[in-house]
Each structure stands twice: as structure tokens, then as C-alpha cells.
What we know:
The protein has helices spanning 26-39, 61-71, 87-90, 97-108, 126-160, 209-223, 228-238, 250-257, 300-312, 315-342, 347-355, 426-430, 434-445; strands at residues 8-16, 42-51, 81-84, 112-115, 173-178, 184-188, 200-205, 266-268, 271-272, 280-281, 288-290, 359-363, 365-366, 372-377, 387-393, 401-408, 417-421, 431-432. The chain is α/β, with parallel strands linked by helices. The termini are far apart.
Amino acid sequence: MSLRSIQKYAIAYYRHSAEDKQENSVAIQRDRVHKFAKEHNIIIIYEVADEGKSGLTANRPGFKKLFAEWILNQAAEHFDFVLVLDVSRWGRFQNYNEPAYYEFQCNQRGVQVVYVDDGVPRPEDQFMTQIKVSIQRGMAAEYSKKLSDKVFYGSAKVSEQGFSAGGTACYGMDRLLLDENKTPIGVLKDGDHKAISNQRVTFIPKNDETNATVKMIFDLFTNQNKSLEEVIENVNEKGAPPKKGGKWNKGKILKILTNETYIGTRLYNKTRNRLKTGKKRNVRDEWVICINAFPASVDEDAFWRTQEKLHWSNPSKWKRGLYVINKARHMLIEEYVRDLLDMGLDRATALESLRSVPMLFAATYRLQNGIPHWCFLLDEEMRRHPFVLGIGVTITNELPIDKLFYIPSTNFGVGGSFVLSEKDDDFSRLQLNEEQFRTRILSKAAPGPVG
Length: 451
């Protein structure tokens, strides 16, 4: 039966996302849908549109309004069709059953979803039409998947080079626009974006009280050894307010203290929510990391000492760490006392000789990246030695002594700390095997040459 002979009524739905090309704009969709309606004697009684909205989910204002006020509203004015330009405008749902579910809701109301580009299906073609629409739904979903992959890999590549792939700057930092030659153009304001695709955006510390507040937070917590509660009190009294106003609290302070952006590291892909599948945290191995990507606000050594303090601020971890350090020290001394006894020293002399050996212990701690770190602390008395022996202990094994190092005293900063991780260039150069360690410790403690 031709629709031309019967007056029908319709609601028109349009959707255009930021990723879509100009030919899919709402204005163009409206022109084509209205032309179709006129050709088939359909009166459009209402129009609803989603501008700049992804079709991956039904969580779109216009789409929700369509269902709330028309499809599911028993008191709504009578209509026969929902006119949509094509299957992809209805949505690019990743679950192929989801678009069919919303169509089924329309059917239960006695309303038919008509995809204008495909025309009105004839009853005898219903089976083939369903197959065709199912294929188009799959193609729409696959398009979004490929587009998502393309955007992700492009953003990852930009981040590998140390530049921003979008988003805002964290507290105390500015976004700096660079031209195609990576020459600074100027600072971007909130909401501003680069105008040319081959321009780049990086970060720089702000020259204002927010950057000073970041430095204050690290100084209070790490250098002045204040508790989190004391830091919060001081910063609320003397610092700039948080980014969104209000008062500083534990969560906001921790967000500052754990953010590697402040040591000039560009991080990307810490979380994922591709294709609107729900936000999830990625393991560090999946992150895109570029160190020294831009100027730092905070000294790197101070930052890693901060991470260690945060790690050991957990009372159970601190007590366990202290226990294994004492256990490792006892085991090591007993082992080398036996060596010195075999070399002719008495026990008292052997113990006194071992106490003169510059040994430092550090319990292994792991940050979000899962990489082992050790923070060795050197006091002024031990600084007179050109080298110290570093013993890394682990709290997870029965035998606590894990790693052995030979560390130049010059590696320790003004504060007397040296942070080492398995990813550092110094790691392999400073690490000792057991025989090398034995030779060095006995050469310090024994009265004569050590074989």
C-alpha cells in the first residue's frame, strides 16, 4: 500500500557527533528527512536533535527526550513513525542488540522506526529488511571502533613525544601552545584549543600562587616532615585555594602529592573508557610515559621521597618494614661475624669492625607502577665515606635481603637521600652480586687483604 494515499504523522530524530563530517550535520539531515516526509505524505509534528553527541550509548538528551515524552508517554499525541536519516544516526551501539531494543520499544507503542536513506520497507520485504538493518548496525559499530582506535593511537603518539593529547592542565600548571616548529606561541586559557593540527600543546608551571602552593605542599610533607593533617591546616591558612574552590582536604592533597606531572612527566592512558564501556584503571605497563617532557615544579628526588613516605605512612607497612630491616641487619652481621672469626678475630672485635662499615638499609616499596624502589638515607657522619654499601630488603620473602648496591656518597642530595629503582640507569651500574658485596664488606672490616 502506498503511503501517499494516507496521511501519516512522525517525529524526526537527528544526531550529529563531533567526529562526524559536515555532510552529517543536523541541518543537512533535516533537509533530507523533510524531503522524504513530503514525498510520502508524512507530517512531521515534532523534531528532536542531539548535537555533538556520541551514538555509542542511549545517554543523549535528545534521544532520552524522544522516549520519555513521545515513545513511552501514553498521553503523547498520536504519531506513526520515527524518521531517522540512517542506522548510524539512531546510534553506533557496540552491542548490536541495543539499537534493536529501542526499536522494539517503538514497535510496542505502534510506532515504526524508518531509516530515510533506505526508504519505507514493504511488508513482504520485512525479513530482508531486518537482515540489512542488522548488517548496517554492525557496520556502524565497527566504524566507531575503528575511529576510536585511530584517535587512541594518534593521542598515544603525541603523548609519547611529551605533548598533551587533550584535556586540561592540573593544578599549578598551564597549557603552553607551540607552533609547528615547537616554538612557544603563548599560554592557552581554559576552553582554548589549538587552531592548526600540527601545533602542539605542552605544560609549564604557572608563575602564580597555585604553583607556590604545590611547592608548599611537597615542602611541608616531605622536607618538614609534617603529617597530612598538618599540611592541610597550613595550606588552608597560607596557600591558594584548590582548583574548584573550597578547602583543602586529604583527597585533594594526596592528588597533588602523587601526581608525576609535577616532575615533568607526561602520562597518558592511565584510565580507559573507550567506546563508553565504563571507566577502568590501566596497569602502569599500559600507560604512555614520557619523562622530562616539560619543566618540573618539584624536585624529582623530593617527589620520590614523598612517595616513599606515603607508602610507609601506613602503620602496618611501616612496622613490617622496620621488622624486616632489623631482621636483615641481624642476619648479615651474623654471617660476616662468622667470616671474621674464621680470619682470626674474636667476636667482640668482629662486631666492632662491622659497625664501622658504612651500610645503609632500605625496604623495598612499590608505587602505582609496580616497579621496586629503595630510598637510602645518609647521615652526616656516614657522608665522610666516599662509598656506602646499600642493602635493599623485601617484606614479602622469608630471606629479606634482596638487592645489594655500592653507592657513591656524592649520589646523595643535600637532604641526604638517594632513591633508586629498577628502571634507573644507575641500577645495573651500582648493583653488586653476593661475592662482590662480600669482598667489599670484608675489606672494610678485616685487618688484612681479603681473598
